[in-house]
Design goal:
Layout lengths: L1 H11 L5 E2 L21 H23 L4 E5 L7 E5 L5 E6 H4 L6 H16 L4 E3 L6 E5 L1 H16 L15 H11 L3 H19 L27 H13 L42
Parallel strand pairs: 2-4
Antiparallel strand pairs: 1-3, 3-4, 5-6
Helix pairs in contact: 2-4, 4-5, 4-7, 5-8, 6-7, 7-8
Length: 286
């Protein structure tokens, strides 16, 4: 019955669905075990319950709507999505293949859920409706990444389900970089390494040969804001910017003005905490 309800939701709202990643053939079936900390259905459900407990009041506070999160554990595809039901409540769907991805850490899974919620609460810039110039309800992919680390993950890690040893989830080089960037702040380090995990999942679907790293930066500058999926390093740069932005996580983004609730300037080069110019161009926002 749960599967049939999920399929009905997907078919009815197919035109409204926003996927975390472009479609690909990469799959991790139920039989796949990625290591000692393998994602089990029970563990992932516990994380979803924790995520919902923390973020449901935030969704209610900002929109008056009810947050719904569903796990399609048997689905081997590597993806997650955001849509809305008939009452415009946000519905997030996590596929089992994503949870079982070997690059996705415990905290990275929270980041994926936060990204999907960012399509609903991320504000401007918004995606376009199909091929038209009309703006949709959904925030752009880069904006959803920015929301994940600037608004959502700080609330999740304020009361974490469990502590994490950074050396167990990333190589020493990246842990040292996270310590340097965050000046030893525990929550910041967790967000940095979660972002790295997400970016490497993104890279695995794009045949991206240079792995994203916390010490690299995408040097590409866009002429106009990219509303689709930026390159993996660019997405990591965006999440790192969200971590470093000094604006309060409780200050919401605005659906029309991308400067509200964000670190923002019109400079050619993004300052600390600003969305990087590899996808965001403040002078060209719709």
């Amino acid at each position: 019955m749960k599967f049939l309800l999920l399929m009905t939701l997907l078919s009815v709202h197919a035109e409204r669905i926003n996927y975390c990643l472009p479609e690909s053939d990469l799959q991790f079936p139920l039989s796949f075990q990625k290591g000692i900390d393998s994602a089990t259905e029970m563990r992932v459900e516990q994380q979803i319950q924790h995520f919902t407990k923390v973020m449901k009041p935030e969704v209610k506070r900002l929109t008056g709507k009810d947050l719904k999160v569903q796990l399609d554990w048997g689905n081997p595809r590597v993806n997650a999505s955001a849509t809305r039901d008939d009452e415009n409540n946000p519905v997030l769907i996590l596929l089992g293949g994503m949870a079982r991805h070997p690059q996705l850490t415990y905290d990275g899974l929270y980041g994926i859920l936060c990204h999907e919620l960012g399509h609903y609460l991320g504000g401007a810039p918004k995606k376009k409706r199909g091929r038209s110039d009309k703006l949709s309800w959904s925030s752009a992919e880069g904006q959803a990444d920015y929301y994940a680390t600037s608004k959502c993950l700080p609330l999740i890690f304020k009361k974490p389900l469990k502590s994490i040893n950074p050396n167990d989830v990333a190589e020493k080089k990246e842990v040292d970089l996270a310590f340097e960037i965050c000046q030893g702040d525990t929550d910041c380090i967790r967000m940095g390494l979660a972002s790295l995990s997400m970016a490497r999942v993104f890279a695995s679907l794009k045949n991206y040969y240079d792995l994203p790293s916390l010490d690299l930066q995408d040097s590409f500058n866009v002429w106009e804001t990219e509303l689709g999926h930026p390159q993996p390093q660019c997405r990591l740069d965006t999440m790192k910017a969200g971590i470093l932005c000094s604006v309060s996580p409780m200050a919401p983004f605005d659906n029309k003005d991308p400067s509200v609730g964000a670190c923002y300037s019109f400079k050619d080069l993004a300052g600390d905490g600003e969305r990087p110019r590899c996808w965001f161009q403040p002078l060209s926002n719709p």
